[in-house]
Amino acid sequence: MSTAALEVINLKKTYQDKVGDSVVEAVKGINFSIKAGTIFGLLGPNGAGKTTIIAAITTLEKPTSGDVLVFGNSVTEKPLLTKRQVGVVHQEVINTGYFSVAEILDFQSGYYGLFKNKERCEYLMHKLSLHEHREKKTRQLSGGMKRRLMIAKALVHSPKLLLLDEPTAGVDVGLRESLWNFVQELKKDGLSILLTTHYLEEAEQLCDQVAIIHKGQLLFNGHSTDVISQYTLKKFTIFLKNGEKKEFEEATKMGLNEVLVKHQIQLSEIQDIKIEEGKLEKAFAKMVAQ
Amino acid sequence: MIIFYTLLRREIKRFAKVVIQTVVSPIVSSALYLLVFGVSLGGSVQLNNGFAYLTFLIPGLMVMGLTNNAFQNSSSSIVTSKFSGDLEDLRVAPIPHYYIVWAMGLGGVFRGSLVAIITGLVGTAFHYAQLGKLIPIEHPFWMLYFFMIGGLTFAFIGIFVAFLARSFDQLSAFTAFVLLPLTYLGGVFISIQNLAPIWQTLSKFNPLFYLINGFRYSMLGQADVDLMTAVGVSLLAAVITFILANYSLAKGSFSRW
Ligand SMILES: Nc1ncnc2c1ncn2[C@@H]1O[C@H](COP(=O)(O)OP(=O)(O)OP(=O)(O)O)[C@@H](O)[C@H]1O
Ligand SMILES: [Mg+2]
What's the CA-to-centroid distance between B125 and ligand 2, angstroms? Predict the structure, then answer.
């Protein structure tokens, strides 16, 4: 078995607020791992601890206990090694004062020891529709453009693991789609991707695996279809020839045949059938409510 | 090496973009000091060492320009990066801390020296107009040494304070309550020989006192401390502040304000 792109091991993070005596247990001992070359969705309501986990991976925050391995190397023990392999798009939008888009990408390349990186920067500016804005300072960019700039920044050094903390917040529908297409493309190139999003539908379509966290604890980790089948019901609406309408909610694994047998409906009575699959959204709400 | 070069290039480019405000304002303020203290009041100040007050004042103003601007450069670089979120990039990228410390230190030397040189030129013009001769430079090598060591020390202090500061107010408080008093009591405007003995003793614990007087010695060949003491103490101060700056990067926060 090849090493995982990311392993989060017993991760705990407690914020000591120096002002009061208040202590926030943001992450309370979480374990999960990401298989190399896959897309992993980290989901959870506001304040669940998603950004904190990402901060631990990038060493912006030091874990209170536990560790994070990037391709088998600990971020606390070999940070210079793991940092080279990680690219991150933060949730908070950047606001660099002095420099233009092109300069920012140039400096970012330099931070990773890349001197002649023009080709890659040009490619990314093209890919992310930033080319026409290359001379602009960040304050002249719209929110969505800034977001794209942040994505370009995260990719200048061709990382092997990409962390996206709500990359589609504030991005319009069309752009969001092209962004996700781009993410798919990156996956094809072999990148491993960890993303957080509040658009559960996207996570459902995009992610190979999802983890759901709430108040710093892991509630679920697996395929999104599994969480749906475990936590939601499939909805069958059956229109009969005599004009009657029957609605049943059944476990997702139930097939149509079984449902018909269970409710003693003959095939010949049926005019039309509508089946609604369960949604991650619902499973999510249910899980968090429990 | 490329990483270090990038950091330094960024520091210098950043400062170059605000060059007017960073260079013009010290020209104006040093011209004012020269006018008020050097020219107007200068005639009435009696110095023991035989120099005109204006001659005495110019090296002091140069060091003040050097240290203030070195401090300004690194601290404002960090503080603005904390506001914009850029500082996080430095933490996320594989950059050893001491690269950041050296790059910002040299950035400070660069800006501080530029301001000091401009102050020196403005001062020389006043000097020539007033006294009919140029200000002497007795020991150019030591002058360079104090440029370097003074710029580094105060840029390191800027790093230290800005990293550990939790708000903009804390940074301003440091400038007002620590930096300014040290500068004024360090002998920019006066020789400590003119001070009461208690102040003379206290000045011996002020690192700026050695920097100012060492620099003054390198220009005039005479000052309140002997050269080697000034060289030694200022070197020690640079080493200590370098350690403090590295410490602040390890302990301080790269997160946004
Ligand atoms: N620097 C900090 N100091 C103190 N508490 C913090 C800090 N950062 C986060 N927290 C707290 O930690 C908890 C988790 O925050 P985190 O930002 O990780 O949540 P999140 O899942 O990213 O939420 P969102 O979806 O809103 O982005 C929250 O209760 C938050 O208040
Ligand atoms: Mg978050």
Answer: 58
Task: Name the phi and psi angles at A147, rounded to 5.
Answer: -60, -45
DSSP letter assigned to residue A11: E
User: How much is the ipTM here?
Assistant: 0.88
Q: Is A64 in the pocket of ligand 1 (CB under 6 A)?
A: no
Q: pLDDT of B211-227, one tens digit each? A: 999 999 999 999 889 99
Is-contact A96 A104, C-beta < 8 A? yes
Q: Atom 1, ligand 1: which residue's CA is nearest? A: A15
pLDDT in tens, B104-137: 999 999 999 999 999 999 999 999 998 899 999 9
Torsion of Cα atoms, B24 then B28 then B29 then B33, to 10°: 150
B178, two tokens: 């620590």
Residue located nearest, by CA, to atom 22 of ligand 1? A51
Q: What is the DSSP string of A226-289?
A: HHHHHH-EEEEEEEETTS-EEEEEEETT--HHHHHHHTT--GGGEEEEEEE---HHHHHHHHHH
Phi, psi of A213 (to 5 degrees): -120, 155
Is residue A55 in contact with ligand 1, taking CB distance under 6 Å?
no
> What distance in Å separates the CA atoms of residue B30 and residue B43, rounded to the nearest whole number?
18
Contact B95 A110 (CB under 8 A): no
Closest-CA residue in chain A for B15? A98
Paired tokens of A193: 């991707």
Tell whether ligand 1 has an atom less than 6 A from the beta carbon of residue A50. Answer: yes
Instruction: Report which residue type is found at B120.
Output: G
- Stated as kind and residue range, the H or E segment containing A43 is strand A39-43
